[in-house]
Amino acid sequence: MNEMRKSPALAGFLSMMPGLGQAYVGYYTQGFINILIFGSCIATMDKVDGIEPLLAPFTAFFWMFNIIDAVRKAKLYNAQAVGEQAAPIPTDSPLVGGVILLLIGFLLTLRITLDVDLEWLEDVWPLGLMAGGGYLVWKYRKAQRELRTTPSIPIAPPPPDPSLYASFGDDPTISPSAGEERRGA
After folding, report:
1. pLDDT tens digits, 68-115
2. Is-contact 45 56, C-beta < 8 A?
3. Cα 125 to Cα 123: distance, rounded to the nearest angstrom
């Protein structure tokens, strides 16, 4: 068995915790974004009265979507690893996830070791979501600009299959009507 393969079943199981299956396959950024969205929905339902009818169905859908998406990404990863797909194996840079973990670790260290009051985070955590959304919009626009400035390379069609021309002789340039005329003459 190829060591590069990712188990779709394990990816789906890990996605019971939203984002963990995507991180297992190599989509670290998407994994962190998914857990932030899921956690934000739970926190918002806890803090804002009357929003449950809107966020509860979305959260349930998002949770199921994460499981299906992780399984699909693992299958795509495996198909690309064995050469069935032409695109490179998809992975994200772990940089964003690493920065988030460093920030969370720093805040927890402040709270636990130095007994710093973190009550102010309750009031400003939506700014983190806005910053993350701004980053994703910037990243999307940058990718769109690169696509517009990158010249497209025309892909040549594959050479004709010689077995298709076996009934007309060895020369694939002879058309069927020319072959019939040659035989009849």
Report:
1. 999 999 998 888 877 776 655 555 556 666 676 677 778 778 878 888
2. yes
3. 6
**Within a 13 Å sphere around the CA of 136, how many CA atoms are in the beta-carbon half?**
11
Check: pTM over 0.90? Answer yes or no.
no
Closest CA to 44 of 34, 31, 55, 29: 55
Q: Which residues of the chain have pLDDT under 50?
A: 1, 179
**157 three-state secondary structure:** coil
Q: What 8-state DSSP symbol labels residue 113?
A: T
In the chain, beta strands by DSSP E: none
How many beta carbons lie within 10 A of that of residue 55, not counting itself?
16
Q: Are 28 and 99 in contact (CB under 8 A)?
A: no
